[in-house]
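Minutes, methods subgroup
Present: GH (chair), OT, SY

1. OT presented the first of two proteins processed in the latest run. Sequence and structure tokens recorded below as shown on screen.
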Amino acid sequence: MNRTELARMIDHTLLKPEATAVDADALVSEAQELGTYSVCVSPSRVPLKTPPGLHLAAVCGFPSGAHPSEVKAAEARYLAESGVDEIDMVINVGAAKEGRFDDVEADIRAVREAAPKVLLKVIIESAALSDDEIVAACKASERAGADYVKTSTGFHPAGGASTHAVELMRRTVGDRLGVKASGGIRTCADALAMVDAGATRLGLSASASILAEMED
């Protein structure tokens, strides 16, 4: 894999609560220079103008996932109407820990139905889940119509992405869904390890320094 190929797998991400409009515009400029697939921002930064070829993603129910489904659906509808290409939503992690995967599925489906034409990535917060819970969350995501399953918000104290979680998620969804690794990926070695484990998209805030380690 060369630098250009890796860049096209990256959602160049800015989700710090203190990020400003100036920061978001700088993110877009840097993403265009780096050649990343998309930028991923908070809902308050949407709508956000992006150049042709650079996709726009925003998070939903972020970072806790503990919002009522109606609130997540309203947020997703707003994002879709504001022109995002992709939504990264957080599951109800508490429901997953309680084994209530029918509720997890219903929560995801509410977002899917609110934004039917937008690519949907489902953040399962894998570091907070057991292996069995990761598998169940991935299956619920697929049943609900998700396009991707995603490891982490990067905000949970349990940690971010791991190659073990990515491998397990890939085995669970096969080639039917994408797998996004996100959270704590700070080096080129980390990024490539996630790709080797089965990730087809990477959520990175350190995109520039990671890509600087790659050859064209």
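2. SY then presented the second protein from the same run.
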Amino acid sequence: MPIDKFSAFTGIAVALPHSNIDTDQIIPKQFLRSVKRTGFGDFLFNDWRYLTPADLDSDIGKLPLNPDFPLNQQRYKGAQILICGPNFGCGSSREHAVWALAEFGFRAVVSASFGDIFQTNAAKNGLLPVAVTADAARLMLANCQAQPGYRLSVDLEKKQVVEPDATVHSFAIEEGARNRLLAGLDDIAATLQHSGQIKLYEQKRSQIEPWLFAGDAGDSCA
């Protein structure tokens, strides 16, 4: 499924100053029985956002909110950038964690480091993992908590994130992931860019090893 192209944007940031936030905290295990990619945003950070347990059948409107949790506070309403402590997205490989963040409205997560699988899943689903230095992450966390309406500008082309006072922080991202995000391509769409070469390979191989293609005459790469 194609993803939205990512270039540069400015958005409200929210600070979540915790280290080692794992995927079970991002979206707990009871929500994994659905694989629809939707319906998870309301349950993002479920155990922290709500005062009572919830599952996919819960009526969100009836769940009491935790007023101390940042995402429930008016100053962070509409936030598109999440700033966290190091090792964000560690733990299990569940892709649901990325789906929940993206559906909630986040376009980027800023941290000093990410879980490897989470970082890969994020880029594949249009969520930008912004890996900055530990000092830069601490500075942005502190500034976000101290300044209501704190906004960051994220530029994937330049690999930079800019604070309201024009302080610039560079960030690292694997080049293949960066190119796919800029072009708005998931893995399937990226593969289909080479459909001509794939079809040519299939045609050549069918002549050399025709028994492999018996009964598949109608199947080919689009």
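Chair's summary of item 2: The CA atoms of residues 93 and 117 lie 6 Å apart.
Next meeting: continue with the remaining queue.
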